[in-house]
Amino acid sequence: MSAGRSARAGWREWGGLALLALPTMLLGLDVTALYLVVPSLTTELNPTATETLWIMDAYGFFIAGFLITMGTLGDRIGRRRLLMIGVAAFGAASVFAAFAPSTLWLIVARALLGVAGATMMPSTLSLISTMFTDARQRALAIGVWATMFALGMAVGPVVGGVLVAHLWWGAVFLIAVPVAALVLAGAPVLLPEFRTPAGRLDLLSVGLSLAAMLPIIYAIKHAAAHGIDIQASVAALLGGSSAVAFVRRQLRLTQPLLDMKLFTHRTFSAALTVLLIGLVGFGGVMLLVTQYLQLVADLSPTTAGLWMGPPASAMLIGAIGAPLVAGRVSPGVVMSATLALSVSGYALLAVAETDSTLSVVGGFTFVYLGLGVIAALGTDIVVGTAPSERSGSAAALSETVQELGIAAGVAILGSLTTAIYRNKIEAPSGLSPFAAEAYGDSLSGASSVAAQLPASALESARAAFTGGLNTAAVVAGIAVAAAAMVCFTTLRHIRPLGEANAEVADSLVSREAQ
User: What is the 3-state secondary structure (H, E, C) of 38-59?
Assistant: First the structure.
């Protein structure tokens, strides 16, 4: 099969791409919109530091847990149908989140949003593969898809900051309602239906995939917050054994939930690895940078959102420009060079102090640039490597590692920063028990009781948080440098976009036929 020899898309396909851009941007926005809303949310709902992390990453964790299942389900029942179901559910869950009366209900709402989002994400990307069979057009369309997701992530903090400044923290969720209405109205007209002639969904495989993903996610989160203890060990053991059972079952089934043969292609596996590492660094650092702007630099939500403009511009330049450059230069080389450049951004964050707002924003601009490039090119490599009939599985895997990477980054780097903060901080004498506990828990907690603190105590809290940011940036920078090496050593052989995707798809089909 060679996508390069397929028919070119027409006006309906490009119109369908414009429609798919709406839920794609919405999904990206929902990942980051709460970053500048957390301080206001904390004041009203008063969550602990651990609950705050759950509010932030329950969405991404549940998306990651259900993506593989939903990607295959879309192939079974129809990708357009699953998209419409997911859009409707996402709108309803967003209303629930907007008016959540307590921390617990907000965490539940975020989890429901994750499940609904998991029905939407693989459908958007696999429908693009269905509509755009010409290799070069597909590369451009996936670049637009990645750009819209990146745009959502980039404007999320800005939108969240503006809405919380003029309305209330829950207003950010209500954006999903008009988007859902537009997609439900336009999908039957602009989007084709596609399903594979496959058998019934293997429910045991679904159960094993969830039993693998969710305990592993919990183990990572718990170990990052509390260290490796019996709970983390048991969860990791349960998840690992379930993952082994899942893989063994997939290899035996004639119609598996996840086609494990995709991993036999070196290019496919390497691109997934780069996406995972890159998103871990980005997810955690973005949470910390947005908190720095509000809680250390003491900027208003709106002003902090405006400071995110340069990073957002860099992300868009990377996502739009990378596919154009990769039409002449190997995508692996483009990704490797850009990731190496983004390491300088982590270096700037690693030496930032409490009065280094310009340096923090400049460093994060380089981080955002790297994210835009790997989101566009990495996704195109993953989807382009797989034959079209497996695009649902490939899309689900690509998005699984991206969502898991963001959520794991928030959990690991966020918890690392919290641990460093708690180790460095010491509550001043004379505080009430509640104020002392809030002060020692996190910088957001200290800010919530700022009126009861001497000025020097709040400055000490800010310095402790900044020290945690420095350490997190070092850890993330080392990981991203490793990802740049993976790109250079394993992906530099890929020829420019269009030529390469047709070759690797043919290669995978030939390998399976042998």
Answer: HHHHHHHHCCCHHHHHHHHHHH
How far, CA to CA in Å, does 25 sit from each of 30, 69, 128?
9, 22, 15
Instruction: Tell me if 8 sits within 8 A of 137, measured CB to CB.
Output: yes
Q: DSSP secondary-structure letter at 491?
A: T
Closest CA to 372 of 216, 188, 143, 212: 143
* Cβ–Cβ under 8 Å, residues 166 and 228: no
Contacts of 502 (CB under 8 A, 6+ apart): 2, 3, 4, 5, 135
Residue 256 is classified by DSSP as -
Is the model's pTM score more than 0.85? no
Q: Cα(204)–Cα(201) distance, rounded to whole angstroms?
A: 9
pLDDT tens digits, the chain, 514 residues: what are they?
Answer: 333 445 676 777 888 888 988 888 888 787 777 766 777 777 777 777 667 777 777 777 787 778 778 877 777 777 788 889 989 999 898 898 888 778 788 888 888 988 888 888 878 877 887 787 776 677 777 777 777 876 777 677 777 777 777 777 778 888 888 989 999 998 888 888 776 666 677 788 888 888 887 787 777 667 656 667 788 889 889 988 998 998 889 888 877 777 777 777 788 888 888 888 888 888 788 878 888 888 888 887 678 777 877 887 888 788 778 878 887 888 888 989 999 999 999 999 999 988 888 999 999 999 988 888 888 788 878 877 766 666 666 777 777 777 777 767 877 888 788 888 888 888 777 777 788 888 887 787 888 777 777 778 888 888 999 999 999 999 999 989 988 998 888 888 887 765 544 444 444 444 444 4
What are the CA-CA distances from residue 285 to residues 313, 414, 503 (Å)?
Answer: 17, 8, 36
N-term to C-term CA, the chain: 15
List of residues 6+ apart from 47 with CB closer than 8 A = 41, 55, 103
Length of the chain: 514
CA 24/CA 145 separation, integer angstroms: 7
Which helix (H) or strand (E) segment holds residue 179: the answer is helix 176-190
Separation of alpha carbons 33 and 58, rounded Å: 14
Tokens for 350, please give them: 């690693």
d(CA 282, CA 406): 7
**Cα–Cα distance, 191 to 425 (Å, whole number):** 55
Inter-residue contact 116 to 67 (CB < 8 Å): no
* CA nearest to 377, candidates 477, 274, 453: 274
What residues contact 75, with CB distance under 8 A and at least 6 apart? 126, 194, 195, 196, 198, 392, 393
Buried b / exposed e over 416-425, threshold 16 CB at 10 Å, is bbbbbbeeeb
